[in-house]
């Protein structure tokens, strides 16, 4: 009885190998081409409004508001007048000041609440810590658009209607949950040994946290600072619903509601107002991106 | 200097029914090097952490220097602990690591300097004081951790497998250093390990633990020669003690591989004889091991390389154990039976 | 003895002095501020939202008079609400399908090495890093009825203006992106894709880099080519992380009102209205808090669903 015998494929000839190598190379060059094409297309799509924004900022009226001129060129020499106008003739500086005030205070409140909470959940809560942490994280998903109507009443009851302080009080309700979650990830990565050693060495638990856990998690704390800062700059709905007088507005709503009005066009200044905020935040965000993502992926991805 | 004592100490982790530490009573002697030896999960580390105040006990009491410290946090116990990881503070220099317990005690700066120099001198790490922990080798880290433990002259040293992060060669010399260090400072030391070589080599006494209980407490020699039950008999010693059923009494007969020798070599009386069916021989340099069976039971015999082996793998030969090396265990409970004459 | 005898003097022992060292005491205490914050500013408003939706509360008359489900009935009876409901679902579903496809491609692109990758990454992330309101403002100006640079390009390409091959509507000098209902809807959709694509991409990218090198090596040794690896290794391993990315996209698109509010203000003739923006116009600008709350509550079931799926994913990753 003849068992079926496995026949090895014949060895390729030199010519065949050379042909395969050529094919492979051609395929790789084609792949590179597609790669650059796709990268360019995505970058253009993402950057289009920003490019147009930046181009606009330095244009003179006579150049910008003539539809027959090529909008991608400076037909008249570029100018800084529009930025000057923004600060001299509008309340932009006030908006910036308000925004920074809110952001700094929100960051402080967030740190004061989220750091102890995250520590408690990772170290002291035992088996419930993780579940409770996820529950708090889910609070981050409750959107402002669901809460802004009743919150406007709460804000009024607190006597904060139409004041930046309403935002200082309300914003931590979404920065604290996400930042607690972010910090839990950081604290989990610090070995328990370190703080236990500090307690053995003669410190109370709070002393051990202060002297070992916090110094070691400085990168995590920085992440939280940047993230709550950025979230504050991003927020629009609450600010729109709670604040109506222009002296109290933040950049997000100030620029879009105050500067956009009127029949006199000043798109250049408007775009300057947006770009001056957008670019620093984008740079800040990029520096901390990987850490934010670790939080967003809920630890499903270990970096 | 202080004696550590625990009474009826029990720890149940919430949710799980079984106790990690199950009503243990044990007392150290003053200045003693006491080893807690057992397999992983036997409760030895939990016991150590309760003594250190890192884990609240479910029941029972802990006494240090005659005072009950059960409900006190670690800082009120005047103890020092060295973790398996050494737990050096990564953001501090070696010097600041060592100074850390002194700062907690609000010691004046000048006195701190003096003590740091003293502890660093004892452990020979003077030249490392300016470094950060990540710039140190494993052995250096261990010494820094010991210096930090030593510097405030604690009542007790608690050591949790401090050698397990070292490579095998470094471990032997570290054992020696550690024991000399302990003799020199003469502070009561409780040392947790799963490594019987460390336990036998360093301990004044060894407490062998299993499943939350202490199986036997005694000097290394006693643990090895007179095991209290079959667990201790097989956990201590490498290869472990052989256990062979005694058909006559329904007991288990235990004997060490080095006492299991060809019957002819032993001569005549005063020995129990067994037919040993040999499967395989293993050369280990200075000695050789014979693997085989007596009846159904797997048995190992050990020969120094200087002794010729009279049997080939595959063959069966008559082997014998001198009666004084034959230990008898209850087959059901595993407990040692009191010695009695064997006919 | 080396340096003095260590003293046995244990610090005075009163366990009550050390209350804050106990996990059972300190734990809840540290958690308290966060819990208070969440209860007061998320929990209470959530309950209030439900109470409002069942009452006739307005900005002028803050008393809660129970009116049953009338607000919900009124909302559903309104044609604009039905348009907003439909829009909310369509915008979310279509944009997230597009994001899923594009994010996979973009993540593959960004996981490769090429010149200028850092710049491309920075640009691609801009829509997410920029405050939404300002990004939307950028689009508003980019799609301006008269000065849109896109219109200029289309004119140069001959797609816009007299004789346009695209049909009669394109024969004017401008496309009027925000004046035609269908174009306005397309615009809102595009802005949502533009805005949620970066987050989905970086989440997928994190997943891609987390695929263990030995799995990739094994696949290479086994002779699996690019597409075979894509179908049999990358996609299956990335599925949970894709789900996470899409869930965020759903939350952010479904509940968003900023894009609509700034780019179209819900127009033309309410054709781009969504639940969130309609709730704002009715509740805050129209002053009918009860109506607004009822409309916003329609967001809730989907959010609960998303939260449940997040929870399942989180549990799954926990056990792995």
From TrEMBL, chain A:
Which keywords does the record carry? Answer: Cell membrane, Membrane, Transmembrane, Transmembrane helix, Transport
Locate the transmembrane regions by residue number. 33-55, 100-119, 131-152, 164-187, 208-231, 265-288
Q: Does the keyword Cytoplasm apply?
A: no
Q: Identify this protein by name.
A: ABC transporter, permease protein 2 (Cluster 1, maltose/g3p/polyamine/iron)
- Cite the Pfam families for this sequence: BPD_transp_1
Report the record's Gene Ontology biological process terms. transmembrane transport
Entry's family note: Belongs to the binding-protein-dependent transport system permease family.
Q: Where in the cell is it found?
A: Cell membrane
Which PANTHER family does the UniProt record give? INNER MEMBRANE ABC TRANSPORTER PERMEASE PROTEIN YCJP (PTHR32243:SF18), MALTOSE TRANSPORT SYSTEM PERMEASE-RELATED (PTHR32243)
Q: How does the record say this protein sits in the membrane?
A: Multi-pass membrane protein
| GO CC terms of this entry | plasma membrane
Domain spans labelled ABC transmembrane type-1? 96-289
List each coiled-coil range: none
